[in-house]
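Example 260.
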Amino acid sequence: MGENALAGSISVSGIKRVLILGGTTEASLLVRRLADDHRNLDVILSFAGRTVAPQYASKQVRIGGFGGAEGLASYLRHELIDIMIDATHPFAARMRWNAAAACSDAGIPRLRLERGPWQQHAGDIWHIVPDIDQASAALAWSQRIFLTIGRQELAAFEGYANKWFLVRAIEPPDLDPSLPGELLLARGPFSIEGELDLLTTRRIDTIVSKNSGGNATEAKLIAARHLGIKVVMVERPPNPPGPLVRSVAATLDWLGQFVS
Ligand code: NAP
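Predicted structure in complex with NAP:
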């Protein structure tokens, strides 16, 4: 059945069950907005369970993987889910495909909510690369590098014994990445002043960042522009075909076709 085949249908109880795939600020914000706006919705927020204490605001939260696309399709059927919002992170590369396949299988509509990417401004020195391995390969002339890519893909930089790395992550890496340098555990939002101070005191010459978008971690890019520091910017992974919106407001508009 096509993804929007159920558009406009009314469930027996009149209450629609919505599964939101979370792990992002937008997902949590959406849950709060739905609690305010659409009282005839039953909302379930799902986390992968990567972080120790996810910040959420939903009565119904589930944590942990579903067991691939098949497991997710079974869950959708078993839990009588009517609508899915895939609000996983712009760099959560696999779940979006599982979501698309499972919704297609279960015959329910799906929307991808993914915040817009950062745009390059005058004065930025960006070297855009398609993935983390290419980001690592782009560091030949860099010496003091600020890695702001999270904690899961640090191994790609292990070959550089003679460079110095400032690694910033919310939680400690699972495995010791054996990178020479400093580990900084911190959660955004970060201020421009704070980022200017960090880049200056650590004498950073290159930042490696994923193009995650959003306000919480943009200050490092503004600080880099100000200081003339190069940014190796990793592009986002592709999305499956289907509707995609950039904001919670647009998500609420889209949901309007299914709920009154
Ligand atoms: P991923 O590669 O797309 O997904 C890997 C597996 O994690 C999926 O196959 C699925 O397991 C499970 N999973 C992912 N999101 C889930 C969710 N919302 N609910 C239940 N299971 C989920 O994702 P990832 O890069 O490992 O990221 C994991 C989570 O952290 C995501 O929810 C994402 O929104 C959040 N996050 C990721 C990043 C990043 O940079 N990658 C940054 C911030 C937050 P099964 O196949 O078993 O269902």
